[in-house]
Write a structure and sequence with these properties.
This protein is 48% helix and 3% strand. It is mostly helical. The protein has 3 domains: 19-195, Up-down Bundle (Ferritin); 209-249, no CATH class; 279-327. The longest helix has 30 residues, at 166-195. The radius of gyration is 32 Å and the shape is extended. It starts with 18 loop residues before the first helix and ends in a 5-residue tail after the last helix.
Length: 332
């Protein structure tokens, strides 16, 4: 279970309100790489972990810390919004530059959130669970976690440069430092997984490698103009997993069949076919089918009555088609 301590993990008090900066700070709260994303990813990775207990405990340690970071950011945003929009505009009027950018304030901070934070990014796009990564494969997840912490630290560093508020910078310096630890933590966990023999490259390491097309497993395929990419470590020498040799394919040729067009799909899908198409939706009454048959016949030249008969029988019941011909004065 979780317990809440009313003390914040670290300070979250600005020197002064700044509603425009509050909007910017929303990115590292509710953005794709924000604290809500890593919090939810780590929680589900921990809850789903079936590996040794040390990994589960470690994941849930950092996941719970991320809840604290969400609280710190939400508190900071609320404090940056403590002056209402009217007060902020009056203050901005003293500085034309600030007045010019005040339009950058998020109106939802007033209208929806009552001068508080929200689970959205800096442009108001809602956080969503698609940002959550928890595959059950620890090496795959830990590699993602390094990326998440790298992107998060990058954004917080950029935000640090966008303010001179010492209170805000104090909190951001703490988050930057914790992201330093977390990047190192996940890299250490990756090495531990390998040392324990639980996972390795390529992920998933438990899948039989003889089932992959080994011919292309270590080829670097040059699919853009120029050959500069052949100078990299990835283009020659022993592969990183030690199981193959990198090979540079400078002028690759297609290996698959040539496809100019696909076969027609089920007519009921109502996609564009190669020829004009009419369908009879399932479940129509006899009268509805009869009217459809008449419509088919009317749209075909009379000299092609046998063709009309064949097409109609394919698309309508034979009985309704014959009734349609009879109604038009055609005897078959």
């Amino acid at each position: 279970m979780f317990f809440h301590d009313k003390r914040l993990q670290y300070n979250a008090k600005p020197e002064r309100p700044d509603p425009v900066y509050a909007r910017k700070l929303q990115e590292v709260l509710g953005g794709q790489w924000g604290e809500i994303s890593v919090m939810m990813s780590y929680l589900f990775q921990g809850w789903n972990c079936r590996g040794p207990a040390k990994y589960r405990d470690m994941i849930l340690d950092i996941a719970t810390e991320e809840i604290s970071h969400v609280e710190m950011l939400a508190t900071m945003i609320a404090r940056l919004l403590e002056k209402g929009p009217v007060d902020a505009q009056e203050e901005a009027a003293k500085d034309p530059f600030v007045a010019a950018v005040l339009g950058g304030m998020n109106p939802q901070h007033v209208i929806v959130n009552g001068l508080g934070a929200s689970p959205n990014d800096s442009v108001g796009y809602p956080w969503n669970a698609r940002y959550t990564i928890a595959s059950g494969n620890l090496l795959a997840d830990f590699r993602y976690n390094v990326t998440a912490e790298s992107q998060g630290r990058l954004q917080v560093c950029r935000l640090y440069e966008m303010t001179t508020d010492r209170g805000v910078r104090d909190m951001l310096s703490f988050l930057i430092a914790r992201d330093t630890m977390h990047q190192n933590q996940w890299l250490a966990a990756i090495e531990e997984l390998k040392a324990d023999g639980l996972e390795d490259t390529p992920v998933p390491s438990a899948f039989p490698e003889n089932l992959q097309l080994s011919e292309v497993a270590y080829q670097f395929i040059n699919t853009s103009s120029g050959f500069e990419s052949q100078e990299g470590r990835w283009a020659s020498g022993t592969s990183i997993d030690g199981k193959g040799e990198f090979k540079y394919i400078g002028e690759p040729e297609p290996m698959g069949e040539e496809i100019r067009e696909l076969a027609d799909a089920n007519p009921l899908a109502l996609g564009t076919a190669k020829k004009p198409l009419r369908v009879t939706p399932p479940g129509l009454t006899g009268g509805q089918q009869r009217r459809l048959a008449i419509d088919v016949i009317r749209k075909l030249p009379r000299i092609h009555a046998p063709t009309a008969c064949v097409i109609g029988i394919l698309q309508h019941s034979e009985r309704q088609l014959k009734l349609g011909f009879r109604d038009l004065g055609w005897i078959i």
